[in-house]
Each structure stands twice: as C-alpha cells, then as structure tokens.
Amino acid sequence: VLGLLVWALIADTTYHLHPAYSWVMFVAIFFWITTVIFFVIYLLQLHLKFYVIPWPLVLVIFNATATVLYITAFVTCSAAVQPTSWRQWDYNRRAAASFFACLVMIAYGASTFFSFRAWKGLGSNAATSQVTNHA
User: Fold this and answer.
1) Cα-atom radius of gyration of the chain, to the nearest Å?
2) Name one Pfam family in it (predicted).
3) Residue 135, class by beta-carbon neighbours within 10 Å (0-12 exposed, 13-18 middle, 19+ buried)?
4) All structural domains of the chain with their residue ranges
C-alpha cells in the first residue's frame, strides 16, 4: 500500500518535467508490481509447487535490492522537492511521496532483516525448537 502511495502521488504531479522523478517512478512501480506478484505467489501457495527455486534466498535478494534502490529513490525524491514551486499542490504531493518512500524503504529494510533470518534458519518458532530426537 505504501509503495502504491509513492507512485500515485508522484504520478499526480508534473513529474515528466523533472528527470529525477522518472527514476523514482521506475523504482516505485517496478517494486510495487513485483511485490504484488510475490504476494499472489505466496497467497496461492505456488511457491510449494516450484520447490526447485530457493524461495528464502530469492526473498533475501529481492528485499535487499528493493531496500538499496528505495534508498536511492528516497534520496532522489527528497532532493528534488522544491518548496518554491510555482504549483503548491505539486510540492505537497512530492513531499508526501518522499515521506512514504522513506516508510517503504524502512519496510523493505525490515523485510530484508526478517527474510535473512528465515534464510539462515534463525527465525524458528518455539514449537520447532522444542522438538528433539532422544531415541
């Protein structure tokens, strides 16, 4: 939802006049679509059918890439906000897009942390850690 807000807010401005916002739009739309695709894959449990693909590693790589590129998009979006813009509503939307880009960056960073823990096997729950083989 936050990624959708980022690209919707920027798309509602005259972003085509500022080349920096094209990068932000690319990052926001690409990772929003890719996240929706991963969500559908996990919702329909298709990842269980494609057991050859190392899904925990794929998620670590995806989330780490999203975090790094959203850092660049956040910095680009924040640096391109001009408070003396001749269109006040563009300033408000771009500032809000910068704020939500920061939130998306933090969310992808947290997802990177948790997917890394799951990939390394550090995220086991209490039920799996209590099972032992005493045969």
Assistant:
1) 19
2) MARVEL
3) exposed
4) 89-134
